[in-house]
Amino acid sequence: MDASSAHQDSLPLSSDALLERLRSWGIGFTYHEHVPLRTVEEAKSVEAALVEPGEVPFRLKNLYLRDRKKRNYLVTLEQDREIDLKALGAELGIGGLSFGSADRLMEFLGIRPGAVSPLAMATGVETGVIFYMDAAARNADRIYMHPLVNDRTIGVTPEDFERVLQHLGAEVHWLDL
Fold first, then answer.
1. pLDDT greater than 90 at residue 151
2. Distance between CA 83 and CA 18 in Å, rounded?
3. How far apart are CA 43 and CA 62, in angstroms?
4. Model confidence, pTM
5. Cα separation of 56 and 132, whole Å?
6. What separation in angstroms does the CA of 103 have from each of 3, 107, 153?
């Protein structure tokens, strides 16, 4: 099954329900619909249309990872940041990082491959996922991410992003890489 909004009703929390929560919390966001995007390269093909002129955007690369002790992590970085899992594990003090499977992604974050997003912490909080975020996001005008599906993108200010995490009960570990 793909990660588009056509299949959102099969998720623990649908994209529509998440967007309604954001509205009820008073979170302002820009909203865009586009072709399904599974990779950073595909995302780059539509990004220019999402950004307001003069805006400093923060575009994401999301990694769902597990360690040797079977702990789950969501690591969100600037999309062009080079990643070496061994070096990242050393930076975080975590040994044996590897990518989690699609089945575990659904189990622990409630999403499918191609739609990984910090907003998946809506489920991740309940399943004990540990969340790390690139501190460079705090310097952006707007952070762009999928709202649990890969054919939609929303943009929020860093302040509103932190408010969302507070509402979700998600603790963020900021990474200065």
1. yes
2. 29
3. 12
4. 0.93
5. 21
6. 13, 6, 23
Q: What is the pLDDT of residues 114-133, one digit of tens each?
A: 999 999 999 999 999 999 99
Burial of 112 (0-12, 13-18, 19+ CB in 10 A): buried
- Whose CA is closest to 118, among 83, 168, 159? 168
Residue that the structure tokens 């979700």 belong to:
168
DSSP state of 138: G
Give backbone dihedrals phi and psi of 132, rounded to 5 degrees, phi first: -120, 140
DSSP 39: S
Task: Identify any residues that bridge with 59 across adjacent strands, giving them in sequence order.
Answer: 144
pLDDT digits (tens, 9 = 90+) for 34-73: 989 888 888 888 887 888 889 999 999 999 999 999 999 9
Angle, vertex CA 21, rays to CA 103 and CA 116, nearest 5: 30
Q: Are strands 130-134 and 72-78 parallel, antiparallel or unpaired?
A: parallel
CB 102 within 8 A of CB 2: no
d(CA 170, CA 123): 10
Separation CA 151–CA 37 (nearest Å): 6
Number of H helices, E strands in the chain: 6, 8
The Cα 120–Cα 124 span in angstroms is: 6
